[in-house]
Write a structure and sequence with these properties.
28% of the residues are buried. By secondary structure, this protein is an alpha+beta fold. The protein is globular.
Length: 334
């Protein structure tokens, strides 16, 4: 499962994920204040906005919720708030140094063009489709891109006199993280599924709780070795049941973002579920993953170099952030 630790890193892939805010999250907290940094407000709505991708995956994978769910959500919320405070400290420093000057619009345009070129094969319609699927407006994406660029520029300035990374270090960074910078709209999956509806209009005795119990029982039987196809034909209520639950090669973009993210991070052959959505519970056996294209190192060398430089200068970065905190007014409201 995608963790909250990765939500504020890496270009467009998580950037869209960060902005995958639901109307439910917005409705919960429209005006509440999570924290203030030098008078600048971080709203609870903004916090939920960044938490939503993780919450959606957790909601799907833990239908019974419970203490562990609450613990994971609480931990994620706290770490995301820390990251947002740190980001606001750096943005505040930028405003002080520049007299609150606007970041060059052309630089934002160039970065968005780079994202489209390297992650979407220069296909702007696919880029816009990914934004729509994530529930992100172009204006929201542009604001997030601007903040990311400011933070990158400030960190680069902080480390400008550091020893430059060696070529082998840059290559190692690329090899370790290249899957995270691939064009995820090119991902596809093959899997088997069993879908259990929460209710049955012809039988009022069918309840979501009873159906969840049934789904969990089916998972247990599958893990003991029962045939997936037979159980799919017996219990599944969707159009794939007749074929034993087999779902052919399906584009990631044809699935919900949370469902696709969970499946892409599941080992091939593993039984997964029950996963919850608004109407029912899904049990999956992942058969095969197809990954979207990854840009060559030559196209992302600067970003990999920046990541290596940041990691090698972590102690210096930590001292810088601590200095910013010491000279800032930070109020945490939650």
């Amino acid at each position: 499962m995608t963790t909250f630790k990765t939500l504020l890193n890496f270009s467009l892939v998580p950037l869209i994920g960060i902005a995958l805010a639901s109307t439910h999250a917005s409705a919960r907290e429209v005006t509440g204040i999570a924290a203030k940094v030098n008078g600048r407000v971080i709203t609870k709505n903004e916090l939920n906005y960044h938490l939503t991708p993780y919450r959606q995956q957790l909601n799907a994978s833990m239908p019974r919720k419970g203490p562990q769910y609450n613990q994971l959500i609480g931990k994620a919320r706290n770490e995301i708030l820390d990251n947002l405070i740190e980001r606001e400290l750096i943005l505040s420093e930028f405003r002080v140094r520049t007299g609150d000057r606007q970041f060059p619009p052309y630089a934002i345009d160039q970065e968005i063009d780079r994202q489209i070129r390297t992650l979407y094969n220069n296909n702007r319609s696919e880029f816009n489709k990914a934004l729509r699927q994530a529930g992100v407006t172009p204006a929201q994406h542009r604001r997030e891109t601007e903040k990311k660029l400011i933070v990158q520029a400030m960190r680069s300035q902080q480390f400008k006199n550091a020893t430059p990374p060696m070529p082998r270090e840059i290559a190692a960074e690329y090899n370790e993280h290249k899957s995270k910078i691939r064009d995820i709209t090119g991902d596809a999956l093959e899997y088997h599924k069993i879908y259990i509806s929460k209710t049955d209009s012809s039988d009022p005795l069918v309840t979501p709780q009873a159906q969840l119990n049934l789904a969990e029982d089916i998972v247990a039987r599958l893990k003991k070795g029962e045939e997936f196809a037979g159980l799919a034909k017996e219990y599944s209520v969707d159009s794939y049941a007749e074929d034993g639950g087999k779902v052919g090669k399906t584009k990631r973009t044809d699935l919900s973002p949370a469902f696709a993210a969970i499946l892409m991070e599941t080992p091939t052959g593993e039984i997964l579920g029950p996963l919850e959505d608004t109407r029912g519970y899904t049990i999956v056996r992942l058969d095969k993953k197809h990954f979207g294209p990854t840009p060559p190192l030559s196209k992302v060398k600067n970003r990999m170099e920046s990541r290596v430089r940041s990691r090698k200068n972590k102690d210096k970065n930590d001292r810088w952030i601590e200095r910013l905190k010491a000279n800032a007014m930070i109020e945490i409201k939650i």
